[in-house]
Amino acid sequence: MTVIALVSAKSCGVTTSALALTMSSARPSLLAECDPAGGTVRAGLFKAQITAGTGLYHLAAAERAGEDALAQAFASHLVRLDESGQRQVLPGLTDPAQAPALTRTWPALAQVMRVLSDEGGYDVVVDAGRLALEAGSIHLSLTPAPLLHGADLVLLVVRATDQSLALARHMTEPLHTELTERGTGADALGILLIEDGPRRAHEVSEALRLPVMAALPWEPDTAAYLAGTGRAPRSLKKSALLRSARTALDHLQAAASRRTLHQQYPPAFPTPAAPQLAGVLQRLGHGGGARG
Which backbone phi and psi does 104 adopt, to 5 degrees? Predict the structure, then answer.
């Protein structure tokens, strides 16, 4: 249904927010942990039960072998977030030194995300991690820029504190420029506010000159569980964080739909998706390769 990319200026709960959105979706959903600095879901929520043999890094070699190999590898490297397999995660890198190997893989992965959303009805959440800049622009090898280019929405995750706003302020213009020149348009950019601090949504919006598209409450117990540092809440689905995430996802879906209706959508991929990539949907539909 939508492809939403989350980024931050510094650690602001991007992965926790991405997990909350993915786990709260009423539709099939996927979290792609694509932070070049390394993933945390493997060691956090899954408490190191997933080995380095599963995850994002292995898709680089598959992409070099061709689109069909990438489709097969993508489906086989997903891990279930629930018993039904309707919510899944692609675990991230185990070592930041692996990131350069993915530079030529990001565009193909962006196309896979598009297929899952447009043809498979998935909510796709991309954890793009902390943004890296070079000479005032997005660093192309330390940021999965093609995933931002192809996203329906790109959300800068910030906390409601002066410190978080000060750090995020330096990221808004580079993101605006990047999405204008190479993405789906500057209006794809917005804020996901973590309500941990004294600043109100309108103050955050005014400070960063961006709309607050969604907000999530600061709920330490559930956040600690998702980060792998705390116990599971008695009723995870009824927690304030996941309930708010469901509402947030509905708002984001509506925002993405309005963008499609109110402006001509610049196609991220002018040619139809390769038939081999559609094989991802077939494999997921049969539960192929999903681990848990």
Answer: -85, -5
